[in-house]
Amino acid sequence: MKSRWNEAEAKQFAGDPLAMRVYTSRLLGADEDLVMHGGGNTSVKTRETDFFGDPVGVLHIKGSGWDLKTIEKPGFAPLRLEPTRRLATLDTLTDLDMARLLRSFLLDPGAPSPSVEAILHAIIPGAFVDHTHADSVVTLSNNPRGERLLADLYPDCLILPYIMPGFILSKQVADAIRGLDLSECAGIILHHHGVFTFADDARTSYENMIGLVDRADRYIAERAPGPLPRADSRPEPLRLAAVRRAVSRVRGRPQIAMLDASPDGAGYASRADIEAIASRGPITPDHVIRTKRTPAIIPAEPGEGAPAVDAFADDYRAYFRAHASPGHTMLDPAPRAAVWKGRGTIAFGDSAKECAIIADIARHTRRAVQTGEALGGWQALPPRDIFDLEYWSLEQAKLAKGAGATPPHQGKVAIVTGAARGIGRAACEALAEAGAAVVGLDIDPGVADALRAHGAAGIACDVTDAGAVRRAIEQTVLTYGGLDIIVCNAGIFRSGERLEAHTDDTWDRSLAVNLTATQRFITAAIPFLKLGCSPTILVVGSRNVPAPGAGAAAYSVSKAGLTQLARVAALELAESGIRVNIVHPDAVFDTGIWTEDALRRSAERYGMTVEQYKTKNLLRREITSREVAALLSTLAGPAFAATTGAQIPIDGGDPRVI
Questions:
Q1: pLDDT value of position 400
Q2: How far apart are CA 363 and CA 339, in angstroms?
């Protein structure tokens, strides 16, 4: 563990304690071995003036929802120090009342809610207080000989047994430090929890933290035998999709499933003792809010994924019944993480972002577990203690308030073809805004860059290459766990060639891109859609299907064939719960197929100016890609759950169609 302190950087914050607090907080947050994804907290005590100009002691402590890696001044909640400190003198205080009182002590009512460890920070001496959940320290704490190990390693620290965060932890520390001279104390070590350091200057507190954690790092490095196991993994996309569907069913909504099949992930999952060591509990109880107490164990044998998920859910219900008190509301019993034997680890969540957080925790956990085993054993807190934190009154209060409205495609996975521009790019954006994890395919090598700003991923892919399409689908499934929505949008449009002058290239290329490629895309996607959540195929047809125009035979025929293909798909796939619907746009000119030359030629055929041609529909309005995309997103959602085989025009009203 190395100090990241930079004297030149730190000088610019001299004289501003809160700015210095931001600086060293970010130093801590930059190291995931110290804190992860909102974990840990920091504070600084200052003297300021209140609204009336009266002097007041202030505790600036990290606020709820902020991460030490990116925290800024507004991320610190300014509390009146003396009343906050005085709460530690009370005999009893519920955590809900504590949270209410702390908010009443805020100098700024618009500030974030203060950390639940605010009282603890208030009573610890020193202007600056740092708290981390350092992996190496907690790993040693989780050893069967943890108390002795920490006592030997930290003779200059106050070491306390585990107790729940919140008021009772503050009371424990207040009682322990009463009457003690902590001037020579390097820090406070809390078993199964983490490390506190403190000083009147930011650098000393920060570097004391680095030094204490470095002792644990060195102890482990000197004694842990050899590197952790590594293995190759060949995960099967269809089996992953089946596991993801089972988890989504148990949770009651679609879930992203993020597989970590890295060599160290596969090595961990290939251990002969994996069921035993992976099921003992988290490295620190704070993780249970995101990961639950244990991961599901997915057998290597085909067909056993769903039963394993159901078994996890049954075990979770039993765990709840064994520890719940009246008034507890059971959380959903679905796993948040899994170990897939021989393949790797899986994170489950409502979004790719949530899965990435769980995957990071799983990565740190498997390293700590294996290190702990190598040092003589891995022993997490008992299930009762884990349950108490998972069902903490503050967490139950959040549950009682209920979550906000869920986006209609939250947790779903979508693939859109022809995604670099026009309707395809707009569809990617609309689906992503509605909560889906979206992958766009396009022959344009810049598709990834084009979609990144729209919240989607991109894969350069020629849709007429059936092998490339299959690989793109499998890559999507291995990234997000499954497939629920496909938008068949890729197409080309060549107009102005009447039949007597029709070229073979126009005809062959139009059918190859608009029809044959889509058939192969649908065929390759069907096995995954059958394992999807409310699976949907959306086909972008054309107004030319019901009302063709002269000079566009290849385009009109290919789109008519595509429509017929979709109708057959609706008939065949309904028994698998897959809906297939078609939209027929017209007059959508902000797309790649409408070049200035094509637009001019089409307008001339009607004897119109370009502007007249753009608004020649009954509503006299131009149709945009975003409007088509909004229709596609809606068709994939619950409003059309009972609709399949539909053909919906979005053309502003065409008299020939009507």
A1: 62
A2: 11
Region 167-182: mean pLDDT is 93
**What is the total count of domains within the chain?**
3
Same domain, 192 and 249: no
Rounded to whole angstroms, how far apart are CA atoms 33 and 655?
Answer: 66
Residue 391 and residue 426 in one domain: no
CA–CA separation, 358 vs 153, rounded Å? 31
Query: Residue 511: exposed, middle, or buried by beta-carbon count in 10 A (0-12, 13-18, 19+)?
Result: middle
Q: What is the pLDDT of residues 321-334, one digit of tens each?
A: 999 999 898 999 99
Whether 498 has a pLDDT exceeding 80, the answer reads: yes
The full length of the chain comes to: 658
**Confidence at 114, pLDDT banded by 50, 70, 90:** very high
Last residue of a domain, one of 343, 373, 401: 401
SS3 content of the chain, % helix, strand, coil (to 5): 45, 15, 40
**Residue 161 and residue 454: Cα distance in Å, rounded?**
49
Q: Which residue range forms the structural domain that includes residue 630?
A: 413-591+625-648
What's the whole-model pTM score? 0.92
**194 forms bridges with which residues in the sheet?**
190
CA 68 to chain CA centroid, Å, is 18
Q: Would residue 597 count as lying in a domain?
A: no
Backbone angles phi, psi at 581, to 5 degrees: -135, 155
Give dist(CA 199, CA 185) in Å, integer: 10
Residue 270 placed within a domain: yes
Q: How confident is the model at residue 595 (pLDDT cuts 50, 70, 90)?
A: confident
CB 516 within 8 A of CB 557: no
Residue-wise pLDDT for 151-163, tens only, equals 999 999 999 999 9
- Residues 458, 485: one domain? yes
Q: Is residue 206 part of a domain?
A: yes
Structure tokens at 282: 């988290």
pLDDT above 80 for 65: yes
Mean pLDDT calculated for residue range 109-126: 95
Q: Which amino acid is at 14?
A: A
**Catalytically annotated residues:** 555
* Closest alpha carbon to 629 in 472, 482, 431, 442: 431
CA distance 355 to 480: 9
- pLDDT, residue 403, reads 62
Domain identity same for 269 and 345 = yes
Whether 243 and 385 map to the same domain: the answer is yes
Question: Both 347 and 418 in a single domain?
Answer: no
Select from 401, 422, 438 the last residue of a domain.
401
